Amino acid sequence: MKLKFAMVGGALGSFMGPVHRIAATLDGQAELVAGSFSRKAEKNRAAAEAWHVDPDRVYEDYRELLAAEADNLDYVVICTPNNTHVEIATAAIEAGLAVSSDKPLGIGSAECDEPASLVDSRAVPFMVTHNYSGYPMIKEARAMRAAGDLGDIHRIVVEMPQGWIQGIITLSGEEPALWRMDPAVVGPSLATADVGTHALHLAEHVTGLTAIAVDADASYLLSTSPLENDINILLRFDNDAAGILTVSEFATGDRNPFRIRVYGTKAGIEWVQETPEYLIVKEPGGNERRLFRGHSPDAESAKWSRIPMGHPEGYLEAFANLYGEFHRAVRAWRGGAPIVGGNRGYDYPGVAEGVRGLRFVEAVLANLAGTDKWTEF
Amino acid sequence: MKLKFAMVGGALGSFMGPVHRIAATLDGQAELVAGSFSRKAEKNRAAAEAWHVDPDRVYEDYRELLAAEADNLDYVVICTPNNTHVEIATAAIEAGLAVSSDKPLGIGSAECDEPASLVDSRAVPFMVTHNYSGYPMIKEARAMRAAGDLGDIHRIVVEMPQGWIQGIITLSGEEPALWRMDPAVVGPSLATADVGTHALHLAEHVTGLTAIAVDADASYLLSTSPLENDINILLRFDNDAAGILTVSEFATGDRNPFRIRVYGTKAGIEWVQETPEYLIVKEPGGNERRLFRGHSPDAESAKWSRIPMGHPEGYLEAFANLYGEFHRAVRAWRGGAPIVGGNRGYDYPGVAEGVRGLRFVEAVLANLAGTDKWTEF
Amino acid sequence: MKLKFAMVGGALGSFMGPVHRIAATLDGQAELVAGSFSRKAEKNRAAAEAWHVDPDRVYEDYRELLAAEADNLDYVVICTPNNTHVEIATAAIEAGLAVSSDKPLGIGSAECDEPASLVDSRAVPFMVTHNYSGYPMIKEARAMRAAGDLGDIHRIVVEMPQGWIQGIITLSGEEPALWRMDPAVVGPSLATADVGTHALHLAEHVTGLTAIAVDADASYLLSTSPLENDINILLRFDNDAAGILTVSEFATGDRNPFRIRVYGTKAGIEWVQETPEYLIVKEPGGNERRLFRGHSPDAESAKWSRIPMGHPEGYLEAFANLYGEFHRAVRAWRGGAPIVGGNRGYDYPGVAEGVRGLRFVEAVLANLAGTDKWTEF
Amino acid sequence: MKLKFAMVGGALGSFMGPVHRIAATLDGQAELVAGSFSRKAEKNRAAAEAWHVDPDRVYEDYRELLAAEADNLDYVVICTPNNTHVEIATAAIEAGLAVSSDKPLGIGSAECDEPASLVDSRAVPFMVTHNYSGYPMIKEARAMRAAGDLGDIHRIVVEMPQGWIQGIITLSGEEPALWRMDPAVVGPSLATADVGTHALHLAEHVTGLTAIAVDADASYLLSTSPLENDINILLRFDNDAAGILTVSEFATGDRNPFRIRVYGTKAGIEWVQETPEYLIVKEPGGNERRLFRGHSPDAESAKWSRIPMGHPEGYLEAFANLYGEFHRAVRAWRGGAPIVGGNRGYDYPGVAEGVRGLRFVEAVLANLAGTDKWTEF
């Protein structure tokens, strides 16, 4: 039987709603059966109709949804604005359901104590969708690093430049007024929380290292929003490796060439999200090897693939890889197995990864507010 | 309500079965409810279990399936070996169902007369999945050409080099013994029928031209199969444009960099399947413009996209674009509208495109068998 | 002492004149001391002045030049229009000088009998500048092939698409009227002779194979010139490998992405002139290795390099590599060593390579004029 | 008449000696006539022989050279280790010659006061070879910025990752012991002085902005050298644009993909030294335009080109572009024109650019030594 889930938020026209819907159902393991897609009745109905959800199972808000459907569901997908994530997640867990929440986990680490302890006490699957870690060649990079193929890591550069705000202004002639830029909705950080947390997660996921200090410089441009939309951060990791993490929403013309480079004593690696199907391995003498997804049946990337190399997979398939693991956890949990930390034993980001992202944001904000060169976290 | 479909063939472990299943369901418009996935009972059951199809709705062969399920289905997906396509398609139409058939339509154009006239008389949706035409930037290329942005077209190069046979031999030390190489199953052509038809379809889809003559050279390598696995073809189109069409299954190390270049008096374009998210526009002075999927809300590619640029879509989404059009046709047909030629009014390949591919194969084989330089078709 | 040379043709504003001048002097082994750069006195003087050639050593035509300077020179560089190559080369050899001639050797193979037998009898260095073979990564490719790293070669694709005629028309609104398009000057072929001979030479240089048959299709576009400006050729080589050779001067927007792909049973290779610093090695399983110029001190490419990888070399350095070998031959010849065939023992193209190019052109023209599918040569 | 120059340092086997020799002579405007190529007599002789310099004009040290040759020379090229640049340059100016010095100008800004004031008082051409600014597409980028095509600049990223130290260790198994890593020879900085100054120069050359503050993090890895070999720097420019400048000599496998990205309100641009022939222009909507060298006769890049697009130029040609301007200045100066600041009126880096590089290094070292977040300079 397919798992049953409902969505809160994510109506037509949003970016992440359709993404979660497709990613959760791509492998035929789960079924969208109910939802509260929007506070606006018309948008709520439109999403249900577009996705063939029974109109009787569409609700005005998440409370109604949980009250009526908790017994019919396995999990809830949360893709509402940031400031509602914690409240909805808490209610869903309390209703006995597993949770897949879009990132960030919340708007501050303090508000996550309650859901974190709930997840612990209920031992329920809980996913925070730092989805870039789901790409097959990222899994391959992680496996290479774990096997020692990179040697000792001493340099990490991770970049996520986007030009969307600039694009909107240039194309429309107006300043964007989006909830993503409103501190009342997204909390005290824009670029760092929105995409910087993805970048940190990917760097730590691939390298197995932990960032321990930040030295940051932020810009606040082309907008009346008080939040930073471009940030350059120097990092130090727990093995003393140096790093750069830079994200921007004003990198004119950049679509989203999320890029990670890791340099070790034996080899360097480079991966770029816009060409996700291969991993560049840099040999000390200067030659490159490009490993392609599924290059051998035993390759780590083969385990995270659906179709052969030469037939491009992309963002949705990577996102679906997170759901694949999550579904395994949900079935195990439905079968009686406790899921520690929301993800223990399964390869998707859980509560700890979500909290860590928020602590990183807080360290960056503290660094920006003070005069110290470095802020540890 | 979602449309209901069954699959014939395409069990786990096949390439195209999972592709059709994902592509048909990606947008939440259709549901796999029954199947005869394999002649082998165990594989048949395994597919049903993996995809959560009710075991009572899994059948030993397509006849049983149609007998039991015709009233509960909207369409049948055929991904069996080539020599059974026509027979299954004919039976499905006669059972009152629409059909989505993997290519080629059959193993010779003569055997397609019956299904073609059935499709005509029943006016039922019929799709042959020349899926590469579903890529958003291919649609954009076609739109540019139709708008006259390329000027008069005088040169076309289309390539589909693959190295899979060589890979298999090298990695396993043995000659592959696959049904794809067996003339009893695939008919008198391997490379030309299997992928050459894709290449021809794409060239004609983008340019709006019709190839009218071929001058071909084939190789029969590294295999005891009597069928060609590498073919180089000179083409002439109906406007006298010259072309090259080359496909190979022995292009060592090539994954599938399906590439099309079209040169007109105003501009050239180039698209490569392994980097499908952009179209290169070549300006007469030598500069390039790279147009990215969904570059403006009005761009043709935006109409065939699910997520924003910078978040890679790929093969499955392109395949799903064909199903999106097919589903629109099936709903219209269910609503009483006749669908002429299996696809009239909808943007997916129908019977004519399928027959055309087979005629192309036959022209190439005739050219290879004779001494004439050119064979018209 | 530096070698002394004079140039015939190649004034300012020409493409090849400055190229030969730079390439011949790049390594500090030779000195331009005299010339007859143009039939037009003003252009002749201007070149001399620009390049600091003594005005007393500038001559109205090559005969005067040879009469006055033969004793002061080691060699003559010929970069006049095609129909004068043979006559000037013959006179220079008769004057006791070595020759570096731009390609093609002449406008037909018959007219080359005399200079060929002169070269033989005088045993004098004679270079025909098929310069693309001078790229370091081409030398590396040849060495890999010679070492057996590619296995048996079964597929070769060589392309040299250019869009210059189209660029001229589009930018100027007029048909180009260049001597390169005038059959009285360049002989009976344009694209095949002008760049097709480069492509054939490169294919044979890298693979060590010999093309033995052609099946060609030519176009005559956008011009009142009767000569072909776009040609697609199917090839067969002496080991039965199949090939495609395609060149165009109407490939709108293509700058000159001269590309060669060679596929063997063990590996494939690919090199593109616009990114000349690396060679792609295609492994049977689908991964790629990119070898960079000078990747180890022992690499073949290191022997043809001036500066380390990461500091791009290009066209002029590759051209200078031919001159480096030619200068070694000239010094040996000045020291008394006979140079058989114009190049025996040295790694630059000689008379045989020049004649072979013309025979290839003649085979292509014969194939186009007749009705046979294949023309052997 | 060609200009006459001598070289100090730069024997065979060095990187920069052959580079200067080729770059200075590439266009036939200057002639190497004397030298003191090495302190080691044998290497000194070998260079002279290889480059056909009269053995009577080869000297044991620069003092002898200047004493004997000052009247026969126009300029001196200095490519000795860093700690001798100032002394040799000063002596050459005092001997009445122009100077082309490899960078950095010296090992500290203080020691440059004397040569700087000498250059001023003598009004003699003086070049410091920050050669990357000589690439045609860098000139094009600068021209676009100057024309306002980028709008207001708000983000700059410049990277120069190299892996040479790592390569040496890995390939040889030993720690490198090169003068480039010895503080007695190169002064108090390795990576910042050696390549960081190139990166800063390029950023300021393209943007027309001036960096005013640095916040740096350095690493000292895999070596007993006390100098930094990897440095990540946050920058602020005089218009408040934010920047990142990062250089490394331990970026395993990176050859030298020197890359600059500049983002303005109207467009972004990107250029990578390993593919120097085009400039990526990033449009706000996410499309790219790739401008190729010499794309029109009036393009800025056309003025800095020797051969047409599609025929790659590289590092040596870019370096020669600096010499082209320098030669113009030397001829003007020989004709009586004063050259203010060593370069006023000509497009090559002079004393001010050299001093600025050293001040940047000093600011970075001060920042690393202190506890302040930002150090202004």
Describe the structure.
- The structure is a homotetramer of 377-residue chains.
- With 377 residues, chain A is an alpha/beta fold.
- Chain A has helices at residues 16-25, 41-50, 62-69, 85-94, 113-122, 136-146, 164-172, 183-186, 191-207, 315-334, 351-369; strands at 3-9, 30-36, 75-79, 98-101, 126-128, 153-161, 211-219, 230-237, 242-248, 259-264, 268-272, 278-282, 288-292, 375-376.
- Chain A folds into 2 domains: 3-132 and 319-349, Rossmann fold, CATH 3.40.50; 136-309, Dihydrodipicolinate Reductase, domain 2.
- The first copy, chain A, contains 11 helices and 14 strands.
- A 9-stranded mixed β-sheet of chain A has the order 13-12-11-10-6-9-8-7-14, with helices on one face. A 5-stranded parallel β-sheet of chain A has the order 2-1-3-4-5, with helices on both faces.
- In chain A, helix 1 crosses helix 10, helix 4 runs parallel beside helix 5 and helix 9 (191-207) crosses helix 11.
- Chain A starts with a strand and ends with a strand.
- The mean pLDDT of chain A is 95.
- Chains in contact: A-B, A-C, A-D, B-C, B-D, C-D.
- Chain A binds chain B through residues 1-2, 15, 18-19, 21-22, 25-29, 32, 50-52, 162, 171, 254-257, 273-277, 292, 296, 306-317, and chain B through 1-2, 15, 18-19, 21-22, 25-29, 32, 50-52, 162, 171, 254-257, 273-277, 292, 296, 306-317.
- Strand 13 (288-292) of chain B pairs antiparallel with strand 13 (288-292) of chain D, so a sheet runs across the interface.
